[in-house]
Amino acid sequence: MKFAALLLFAATLTAADAPRLFFSKSFPASTPAYEQIDLDRTGAVEYREAPDEDLPVKFQLKETETQEVFGLAEKLGYFKQPLEAPVKVAFMGTKTFRWVDGAKTSEVKFNYTQDTIAQALNDWFERMAESAQREIDLERTVKYDKLGVVQSLLLLQISMDKKRIVGAEQYLPMLDRIIKNSSYMHTAQERASQIVNAIRAPKP
Questions:
Q1: Beta partners for 110?
Q2: Looking at the predicted structure, is the pLDDT value of residue 130 above 90?
Q3: Is the pLDDT of residue 7 over 50?
Q4: 169: number of CA atoms within 13 Å, CB side?
Q5: The pLDDT of residue 167 is above 80
Q6: Which regions of 102-202 does DSSP assign to beta strands (E)?
Q7: Residue 5 lies in a domain
Q8: How far is CA 201 from CA 10, 168, 191, 197, in A?
Q9: What predicted TM-score, i.e. pTM, was given to this entire model?
Q10: Taking a C-beta distance cutoff of 8 angstroms, is the pair 83, 113 a contact?
Q11: Which of 15, 39, 91, 171 has the fewest CB atoms in 10 Å of its CB?
Q12: Alpha-carbon dihedral sign for residues 17, 21, 26, 30
């Protein structure tokens, strides 16, 4: 029993010390005004809209997606060099990339970058944020606004069609709930069924 507890403790320490990525965007004029993403090597994502948020949205990236994101961070030298473009542009929010490896951290902040690798990494984080936002919106309407469920599902479909969704499996429990509950509009149930089919049997 003690040996099993020691193994669990060691595994916890290993996970805590494993390299992870942090992203945040602060843009007071937008909604939400703040976005934060933590991504670890297992592909586990945590999304927050406040630095001290206790209940983040959690979902999982595929192994290939996780490798691509961490590969982009490696190509950027783990954020030890400036990324801000030397051009005058409108303020689009302060973005932060941070690499955390045990006690070692390195980070870079920027408003706009012309580095194509940094742009690709930023797009990955933006897609993670949009995916979490779609979950937040859908969960809210499922619980409190049954008439709004159709609109939430439409927004999710639009994001999926634009290839802006990652970790789509996170939506399945709520979608199944809509499909099986006759208190939701028939239109909502049909749309939820379409999305479930797209997630479980994606087109090549």
A1: 95
A2: yes
A3: no
A4: 10
A5: yes
A6: 104-110
A7: no
A8: 38, 12, 15, 6
A9: 0.90
A10: yes
A11: 91
A12: negative
User: Which is nearest to 51 in space by CA: 116, 104, 98?
Assistant: 98
7 falls within a domain: no
Any residues with CB less than 8 A from the CB of 162 and at least 6 apart, and which?
none
**Residue 13 DSSP SS3:** helix
With 0-12 / 13-18 / 19 or more C-beta atoms within 10 angstroms meaning exposed / middle / buried, residue 184 is buried
Percent of the chain with pLDDT over 90: 89
CA distance 26 to 6: 40
Element (H, E) at 98: strand 94-101
**Cα 137 to Cα 151: distance, rounded to the nearest angstrom:** 10
Number of domains the chain is built from:
1
Place of tokens 């933590």: 38
Within a domain: 10: no
Does residue 32 form part of some domain?
yes
Q: What is the three-class DSSP state of 74?
A: helix
Q: How many Cβ atoms are within 10 Å of 66's Cβ, its own excluded?
A: 19
3-state secondary structure 82-97: CCCCCCCCCCCCEEEE
Q: What are phi and psi of 21, to 5 degrees?
A: -115, 145
Q: Are 36 and 22 in contact (CB under 8 A)?
A: yes
Q: How far apart are CA 131 and CA 111, in angstroms?
A: 22
Pair 84, 21: CB distance under 8 Å? no
Alpha carbon distance 38, 92 (integer Å): 21
Task: Give the C-alpha distances (Å, rounded to integers) separating 177 from 40, 53, 139, 193, 196.
Answer: 29, 26, 11, 11, 11
